[in-house]
């Protein structure tokens, strides 16, 4: 059933698609990290309209499917706002927006874990709010949550096949296109699974090692 000659023939095309998949994941994760921090800070704002807006956006995005969100961005946004984006850009924005709502909760847990005395010390030293956040709070809040963020990065990587629905030629869609031409599904789909495993499994081990190392540094 397995044809090695055919496998070696289609492997370069799948590797090129893997590069697109990794790029979409990296871009989406960078956006999610930045967006998650913004949402976390906005949710803690003393300005109630801003805090309520951040919480409402988070709840809405988390309770709607990623597939629906990327469909909206790719197909509906050009009709509503006359904004047309490439499938790659929509993939990054869709992944970034969706997972920023989850990372905002991760940031929140890290921020709330900062001892109250650190806030009081910053106040006693007459630090401004930006300096308090970026010099005192965030440097202590972010390191403990890095492993959790790493887990979300792996989850995002495994979610990229959803983007094939908006014609982004990532790994799964490439395998589908190959199978539709050759009528051989065993090799391309098996290779897709292997390629995902070859990246996801080592990445999960690295995240686990990082978590153990950080726990040791914190004395846990």
From TrEMBL:
Its main location: membrane. GO terms for molecular function: transmembrane transporter activity. This is Amino acid ABC transporter permease. The chain crosses the membrane at residues 20-42, 72-99, 133-155, 162-183, 189-207. It is a multi-pass membrane protein. One of its GO terms (cellular component) is ATP-binding cassette (ABC) transporter complex. It is found in: Cell membrane. Residues 18-207 form the ABC transmembrane type-1 domain. Belongs to the binding-protein-dependent transport system permease family. GO terms for biological process: amino acid transport. It comes from Paenibacillus naphthalenovorans. Keywords: Amino-acid transport, Cell membrane, Membrane, Transmembrane, Transmembrane helix, Transport. Gene3D superfamilies: MetI-like. SUPFAM superfamilies: MetI-like.
């Amino acid at each position: 059933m397995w044809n090695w000659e055919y496998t070696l023939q289609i492997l370069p095309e799948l590797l090129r698609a893997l590069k697109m998949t990794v790029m979409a994941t990296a871009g989406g994760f960078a956006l999610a990290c930045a967006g998650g921090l913004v949402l976390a800070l906005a949710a803690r704002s003393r300005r109630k309209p801003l805090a309520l807006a951040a919480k409402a956006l988070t709840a809405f995005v988390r309770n709607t499917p990623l597939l629906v969100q990327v469909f909206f961005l790719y197909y509906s946004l050009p009709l509503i706002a006359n904004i047309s984006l490439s499938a790659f850009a929509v993939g990054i924005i869709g992944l970034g927006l969706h997972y920023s709502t989850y990372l905002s909760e991760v940031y929140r847990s890290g921020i709330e874990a900062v001892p109250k005395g650190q806030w009081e010390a910053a106040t006693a030293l007459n630090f401004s709010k930006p300096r308090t956040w970026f010099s005192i709070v965030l440097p202590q809040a972010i390191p403990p949550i890095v492993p959790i963020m790493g887990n979300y990065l792996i989850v995002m990587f495994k979610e990229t096949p959803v983007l094939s629905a908006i014609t982004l030629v990532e790994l799964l869609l490439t395998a589908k296109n190959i199978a539709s031409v050759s009528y051989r599904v065993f090799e391309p789909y098996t290779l897709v699974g292997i390629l995902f495993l070859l990246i996801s499994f080592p990445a999960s081990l690295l995240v686990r090692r990082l978590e153990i190392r950080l726990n040791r540094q914190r004395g846990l």
